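Re: your question from the hallway

Yes, I did run it. Sequences:
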Amino acid sequence: FSKFTSIDEELFEELEEILIQADVGVHTTMNLVDDLREKAKEENIKEPKDLNELFKNQLIEILSQGEEKEDSEQPTILMVVGVNGAGKTTTIGKIAQRTKEAGMKVLLGAGDTFRAAAIDQLKVWGSRVGVDIIAHQEGADSAAVAYDAVQAAKSRGVDLLIVDTAGRLHTQSNLMQELEKVKRVITREAGEMRVEVLLVLDATTGQNAVNQAKLFNDAVAIDGIALTKLDGTAKGGVVIAIKEELGIPIKLIGVGESAEDLQDFEAESFIEALFN
Amino acid sequence: GLADKLQGAFDKLKGKGKLSEKDVKGALREVKLALLEADVNFKVVKKFVKKIEERAVGHEVLTSLTPAQQVIKIVNEELTELMGGTQSKITFASNPPTIIMMAGLQGAGKTTTVGKLAKLLKSQGKNPLLVAADIYRPAAIKQLQVLGEKVEQPVFTMGDKQDPVDIAKAAISHAESNGNDVVIIDTAGRLHIDEALMDELKNVKKAVKPHEILLVVDSMTGQDAVNVAENFDQALGVDGVVLTKLDGDARGGAALSISSVTGKPIKFGGFGEKLEDLREFHPDRMASRILG
Ligand SMILES: Nc1nc2c(ncn2[C@@H]2O[C@H](COP(=O)(O)OP(=O)(O)OP(=O)(O)O)[C@@H](O)[C@H]2O)c(=O)[nH]1
Ligand SMILES: Nc1nc2c(ncn2[C@@H]2O[C@H](COP(=O)(O)OP(=O)(O)OP(=O)(O)O)[C@@H](O)[C@H]2O)c(=O)[nH]1
Ligand SMILES: [Mg+2]
Ligand SMILES: [Mg+2]
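Structure:
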C-alpha cells in the first residue's frame, strides 16, 4: 500500500482485487470491504497503512473466532473426507507421522475400497511412518472396513485411529449416503473414543469449496478443515466464507507432498500470505 | 441465473425511454459478477467484459426491444468463440507411434485420464501403450497398472528408481517393437513453480518429442487457473487441455481463464471416475454452465 498516500475509493478497489484474486469470492469480498468502509469511518482512519492493519485484523478475527484449545488427551477416531484428489490420503500419512512422533499409538483404516491402488497407497504411507493399517480388499464394503478398524483400535488401545475414505463429489447423493453410513458405524462402535471428521480441501479450489463444505457438513458434521497444497500459488481465500457461513474452523494446512509438510493453521500467517 | 439478473437490471432502466451507453455499461456489472462467481480469473473478466462492452453499446442492444436477451446472446457467442473452434481430437502422427504426454498439478486427474484416453483410443482401433513415468507418488505405478488391466492395454514401467526421461525413451522403443501405435505418458503431479520438476518435464519433452502435450486441470480450480495454465504453457507448449470432474457442480470458470491466457483448445472433459467418462468438450455447453 506504499503507493497510496490517502484513503480513497481506489484503495478500496485495490483491496477488493487482492481478495477476489485470493479466491475469497466476489460477494464475500464486497461485504468485507463494505464493513471495512464503515469501520474506517467510525475509527476515523486516515492512513492507508492503518486501513491495511484494520482490514487484516478484521479477517484474522473471522478466522480465529470461537477457536477453543483442543483437548487431545482422549483417544480419537478421525474420519477423513473430501472430494477427489484433494489430498486426503497424503494428509493422513502426515497426521500419522506427527502423532507417532509425539509418542502416541496410531492406527490407519483403509476405507477407500473403490479407487485403483488406494489401499496400496495408504499401505506405503503406513510403512513409511511405521504404523499399522487395517484393510480389506479393493471392492469391499467401506463401512465394514471402518467397523473392523474401530474394533482393532479399541482392542489395541490406540490413541488415534485415522479412517481414509474414497474421494467423492458432494453432488453424488448415493456416495454422500455411504459416507453417512460409515460415520454412523464408527460412532456406534466408538465406545470411549471420541469421533472427529476432517474435511480436506484443495487450496486451488474456487468457490465450489463452499458447496463442498456445506454438503459434506450436512452429511457428516465436519469438525475441522485441512487446507492442502498451500505450497502452490493459490491462496485458499475461500476458507474465509466457509468460516463465516458455517463456523467450521481450519485446523491444518498442507504445504507439500512429504510426511513433514503439515502445519497447524495460524490465522495471522495465513492472512499475511494472502496479502503477499 | 445471469439471464434473470440482466433482465432485472434492464427492467430498472425501462421507464427512462431510450437506453444510453452508460445504462448498458452499468448493466454489464451483472456479467462481471456472474463470471467472478463462476471462478473466472479477475483479470480475464476485466478483459472479457471490455470486449463485450464494445458490442453491447452498439446498435443491436440500444435499439432492441429485449436488450437483456441481446446482451446474453452476445456474451454466449463471445464465450463460446473464446473457448471454441476446438479440435476435440488427438493429432495422430504420420509415423507411429503418436506420443501423448500428460501434465498438471497434483490430484487433477492425470492418471485416471490416461486410462480413459487409452479406452477411447482403443475403441477407435488404436493399440495404446500406457507409460508409468510417475516415480514419486506412492503406488502411482500400481494405480496405472490397475487401469491398464481394466482397459486391457499394456503398461510400461521401469519401477520407481529410474529417471522419467529414461522411462519415456525406453517406452517409445518398446512401443515401436511391440506395435503400439500410441504411447500415453503419465507424469507425476507437480507445481508450476517447482523448477526442478518443471525441468524434468521439459527434459521428457526434449527426449521423446510428444505430438500432444495435454494439460489436465480440475474444473473446480479458482483464480489460480491462470497461473497454472500460463506457466505450463510457457514451459512446455501445451497442445490441449483436459478439464476434469465436470460431473460436479463447479461453474468451471477456469475453462475461460485457460482459453483466454493460452489460446489452446480444451479437447476433452472428464465426467466421472469410470474409464468411459471422457467426452468431447462442448464450448457452448460450457459457456452456459459458466454463466449460471
Ligand atoms: N504440493 C502438494 N501436493 C499435495 C499436498 N497434499 C497432497 N498433495 C498431492 O496431491 C495428490 C493427491 O493426493 P491424495 O492424498 O492421493 O488425494 P486424495 O484426496 O486421497 O485423492 P482420492 O483418494 O483419489 O480422492 C498427490 O500427488 C499428493 O502428493 C500438499 O499439501 N501440497
Ligand atoms: N468425479 C470425478 N473424479 C475424477 C475425474 N477424473 C479423475 N477423478 C478422480 O480424481 C482423483 C485424482 O485422480 P488421479 O488420476 O489420481 O489424479 P492425478 O492427477 O494423477 O494425481 P497425481 O498423480 O497425484 O498428481 C481420483 O479419485 C480420481 O478417481 C472426473 O472426471 N470426475
Ligand atoms: Mg485417497
Ligand atoms: Mg497420477
